[in-house]
Amino acid sequence: MSRRTLTRFAVPATLVTACALIASGCSSGDSGPNASAPSSFKTVAQINAHPVSDLKQGGNLNYPISQVVANYNYDDVNGASVDLNNIYEASMPTPEKADADGSVHTDTDYFTSIDSATVNGKFTVTYNINPKAKWSNGRPIDWTDLKANWNAQNGKDTTYEIAASNGYDQIESVVRGTNDQQAVVTYTKPRSTDLYLSGG
C-alpha cells in the first residue's frame, strides 16, 4: 500500500477556490454523459462561479502530492515533475489566461500586448510589458528579465540544468524595444501561434 504525502500550503482563499474548482471536475469511472443533467451543461462551464467579492481571506489548502518535491524550480531538471506542475498551475502567474470556452488571451496584468510579425524575413514577437508589472521587491519587470529567462533556458549555458530548451533554443535574440518595457524577440524560424514563452 502506498502512502500519499500531504503537503500543507498556506494560500489565499482565491487559490483554494481555484483548486477546488479544478478538483471538482475530476472523477473516476466516468460512464459518459449524465442523462439527467440539465441541457445547459453542454454549453456552459460546469463550475459554480462566484465574484471575487464573495471570497474570504485566509485559510489553508492541503494539497495532495505523490512525492516530496525536491526542487521548486519547475524549469530545472530536478524540479520538473507532475506534482510541481500541478502546484505551479494553481499558484503561479502566467502571461496568458484561458476563458471558460477555451480561448486564450494575454494577461494584461503582465503584458499590455504581445504581437508577432515577420521582420526582415524573420519571425519576430514584440512583448509590451505592463508598466505596472513589478517584482515582489518593487522593481519593474523589463526587457532584461525576458532576456535573462532566454539565456537561462536556451541550453547554451550548461551551468543551468534546465529541464528542456524547447522554443528557447529557436530564439536568435532578445533586445530592448522602444523602451525598457518592450522586448523584441527574433526567432531563427517561424513558430506557431504560441507566443507565451516568457511564462516558462
From TrEMBL:
Residues 122-195 form the Solute-binding protein family domain. Keywords: Signal. Residues 1-28 form the signal peptide. The keyword Ribosomal protein does not apply. One of its GO terms (molecular function) is peptide transmembrane transporter activity. GO terms for biological process: peptide transport. It comes from the Bacteria. The keyword Signal applies. PROSITE patterns: PROKAR_LIPOPROTEIN. This is Solute-binding protein family 5 domain-containing protein. It comes from Gordonia jinhuaensis.
